[in-house]
Design goal:
10-stranded mixed β-sheet, 11 helices, D-Maltodextrin-Binding Protein, domain 2, 10 strands, 2 domains, alpha/beta, 323 residues, 19% strand
Length: 323
């Protein structure tokens, strides 16, 4: 190619690329939407709102949280999958994201193909709480009560396929008790009905219910982490309570639609990790029972792939099913 022609071709290429480059440099130039696929008041919503201000400060733009609950998180997740891949639509969800593919045969999205992981925000154990009227104060007393009244006790979760649901099914499987799963459309409604006595038991993430444990509205029985929570050192684990198989940690994390530009994904990762590692946010999240994480996009992607395989096996063995 002649020098003039080459120069002309390069100039044209720069003209074509210039808007895209300018757009990437300007990001973010408007508020960013966080789609939370659960109703207000649940653990996912609580963590998203705790992170809102510090993350908005890092990004230099407001964050708008939209709660789109329904179908165990699948309604909001589908909306996020179909949203414009421009960096202004982010899915903030929990580890049901890797459980649902086994429970639902025909999801309208593919967890791995339709999303790109940004970063895991926190790891949080599930906690089993009961209404104060339940005459049991520890795991073994609860097992004895359930065996004396087969099919009479209910346990709530934030929805079918949630970490709480899986924890409850494992509890049933490993102890031989007959308790009935009552799925809700989010942590808020499940916590409200447990406090009101409509259900006797609840497996849920700690941020959704810890304030009610401290106020005495519900009783804490055990946590599903391998070790006791720093936030709740007086609450035993299922491991030390004689049911070592019930270890179910849940995580919360951010995802972008799959075709979001890699530069934007990396930028979001950098700012999210910075916000998570800020001392004030770490202290606040840890006070709710959350262990802050903040990892790379590739590390988070590996977690997703590994957990899809893990939960497929657990769901199959536990007998968990759609209600």
């Amino acid at each position: 190619m002649k020098p003039f022609a080459l120069a002309r071709a390069l100039a044209l290429a720069m003209l074509v690329l210039a808007p895209a480059v300018a757009s990437a440099q300007a990001y973010p130039s408007r508020p960013i939407k966080f789609i939370v696929p659960y109703p207000p008041g649940g653990g996912t919503d609580v963590v998203a709102r705790i992170m809102n201000e510090p993350l908005a400060t890092e990004l230099g733009q407001p964050i708008i949280i939209e709660n789109k609950g329904g179908a165990a998180g699948n309604v909001g997740t589908e909306l996020a999958a179909r949203a414009p891949a421009d960096g202004y639509n982010i899915l903030f969800t929990l580890s049901s994201h890797t459980i649902n593919p086994k429970l639902y045969d025909k999801l309208p999205f593919d967890v791995e193909k339709d999303f790109v992981p940004i970063s895991m925000a926190t790891l949080i154990p599930q906690i089993l709480v009961v209404h104060p009227s339940v005459p049991a104060n520890n795991v073994q007393e609860l097992i004895a009560l359930a065996k004396a009244q087969p099919g009479k006790l209910n346990f709530a979760s934030v929805g079918t396929g949630s970490p709480g649901h899986i924890a409850g099914e494992l509890f049933k499987l490993k102890t031989g008790i007959d308790i009935v799963h009552v799925p809700y459309k989010g942590g808020g409604p499940a916590v409200t009905d447990t406090i009101g006595g409509q259900v006797q038991m609840l497996f849920v993430s700690m941020p959704a219910v810890w304030q009610h444990v401290k106020s005495g509205r519900v009783k804490a029985i055990a946590v599903t982490s391998a070790k006791r929570s720093v936030t709740a050192p007086d609450v035993p684990t299922f491991v030390e309570s004689g049911v070592p198989e019930v270890v179910v940690d849940s995580w919360y994390g951010a995802f972008a639609p799959a075709k979001t530009p890699p530069a934007i994904v990396e930028y979001l990762n950098k700012q999210l990790v910075a916000a998570i590692n800020s001392p004030s946010l770490k202290t606040l999240l840890e006070s709710q029972g959350a262990q802050t994480v903040g990892n790379t996009t590739s590390d988070f992607a590996k977690v997703i792939g590994d957990e899809i395989v893990k939960w497929r096996k657990v769901v199959q063995v536990s007998g968990a099913k759609l209600d």
